[in-house]
């Protein structure tokens, strides 16, 4: 990404950073989806940076804006249940499959629930992924009750003594009350079998500040424990990661960088910071 590499190159060896340079950096930060408040805060801190230790100082500044919460999986005592939420188009269903593939490769027994019943393509998409990666998919009727599918999947995971149950959820975002009621219903019926251990919110990095607004709505509707940041590749500036973690203190746990199942990995905060600097 190298968002701050130009700034470091200019400031090294000189204490003369012109007003035009600061203006250029401000524009770069805003374009990178940091948002106005975080950009202003960063610039105030960056003005105090000395040229001789610019990279180290900036690394420390950026690190303070990231969440300090655990980025590991929140495991259950028996089957670990993960609800995956997010609006349509963020890569939510694909992320469910990629997460399942990642866990299966590490030797875990996984069940997926095709709970996005209102979007027929989502069910078919997850079933196709299930066949490809060798993971069982529990589904129901088109436009059926998502909570019913989730409950059936929980029973299947219990019977098969699965290590993980990953539940895809409806991605329609009509209003906050509908969203809260739907997600709470899924949570309530699943917890007749297992507790929900983790709620992962999928955010499309290319949507910038809109992604931050989505995150705010979902965190008001359900207790989000982590974020999957998708499409963080050549087309995404990636600054939204800092904005989300600073604003909401929710740790990014996974990143998706492409279409294949291997294009999915744990979010490494140190690597992310170094990517912004180099």
Automatic annotation (TrEMBL):
Pfam families, per database record: SRP54, SRP54_N
Organism superkingdom: Bacteria
Single GO MF descriptor: GTPase activity
Entry's Gene Ontology cellular component terms: cytoplasm; plasma membrane
Enzyme class: hydrolase
Any coiled-coil regions, as ranges: none
The EC number(s) this enzyme carries: 3.6.5.4
Binding site for GTP: 86-93, 168-172, 230-233
Major site of localization recorded for this protein: membrane
Membrane topology: Peripheral membrane protein
GO biological process: SRP-dependent cotranslational protein targeting to membrane
Catalytic activity: GTP + H2O = GDP + phosphate + H(+)
InterPro entries found in the cross-reference section: AAA+_ATPase, P-loop_NTPase, Signal_recog_particl_SRP54_hlx, SR_rcpt_FtsY, SRP/SRP_N, SRP54_GTPase_dom, SRP54_N_sf
Keyword Membrane: yes
Residue ranges constituting the AAA+ ATPase domain according to the UniProt record: 78-248
Subcellular location: Cell membrane; Cytoplasm
Residue ranges annotated for the SRP54-type proteins GTP-binding domain, each copy included: 79-278
Cross-referenced SUPFAM superfamilies: Domain of the SRP/SRP receptor G-proteins, P-loop containing nucleoside triphosphate hydrolases
Keyword entries, A-Z: Cell membrane, Cytoplasm, GTP-binding, Hydrolase, Membrane, Nucleotide-binding, Receptor
Function: Involved in targeting and insertion of nascent membrane proteins into the cytoplasmic membrane. Acts as a receptor for the complex formed by the signal recognition particle (SRP) and the ribosome-nascent chain (RNC).
HAMAP family membership: FtsY (MF_00920)
Protein family (similarity comment): Belongs to the GTP-binding SRP family. FtsY subfamily.
Subunit and partners: Part of the signal recognition particle protein translocation system, which is composed of SRP and FtsY.
Record's protein name: Signal recognition particle receptor FtsY
